[in-house]
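Sorry to interrupt, but I need a hand with the structure work. It will help me judge whether the discrete encoding reads sensibly. Write everything out right here, beneath this request:
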Amino acid sequence: MAQTAQGGPRLSEVEMQAFLALTKGSDSVELKLTVPESDQRSAIRSLGMDPLDAEIRQVFFFDTPGLALFQAGLVVRARRSQGKGGDSVVKLRPVVPEDLPKGLRKSGNLVVEVDAMPGGFVCSASLKGVTSLAAPREVAAGARPVRKLFSKEQRQFFESHAPEGLILDALPVLGPITVFKLRLAPQGYARRLVAELWLYPDNSRILELSTKCAPPDALDVAAEAREYLVSRGVDLSGEQQTKTKTALEYFSKLASAQPVPVAE
């Protein structure tokens, strides 16, 4: 893997071919960059971010204290968004688009997407659903079962890929975590950027910048985004963090050590 001073790591030729192969079968590509805490203030100023324009979100994860689902490639979460309703997702990764069942690919609720950041990429299949704004809080408070956050289609997807014996209603809530999401139209850049600031209870934070594009445009958009961010003084060479993994690892340490019941 090649490394540049400020532009960050680049994919090798073999990695690039694997990336392009995945994009051909995906619905979209999301290009991501996490900005080190030491550089976050300067990046916020440079890109003209106004925190008052941000949408507040709460994200709730569901997994065992030992993160059995995450280790099996599953992410189960629900979300509340300010001024909107709630939503839920069951995500499987990594996947090869061509290997997904044809019936599943026809679902209007499924999104197959390649996430790429400096030095790496992964393809995921996300089955999405809709909930009320209050539902995730009610589940966290024990007022309704976890399964009520997910559609029949999502529950079947979960059961097909979860480790044997794990059931949704037995999963503890990991979180919630507060997120600020800001959609940007930066000066001098033709595309929109999305900034997400994840605030962890230990006072650490992750600032992620991202943009989505159609698979055939991925390389051009990546080059343009890289050039623009470097021109604004944003360092692409910092260690990349994943928001979900960081959140799960933090909250799993706080989860009860009680064993998770298994289905009979």
Observations:
- DSSP finds eight helices and eleven strands in the chain.
- Residues 91 and 126 are 4 Å apart (CA to CA).
- Confidence is low (pLDDT under 50) at residues 1-5.
- The first strand starts at residue 2 and ends at 4.
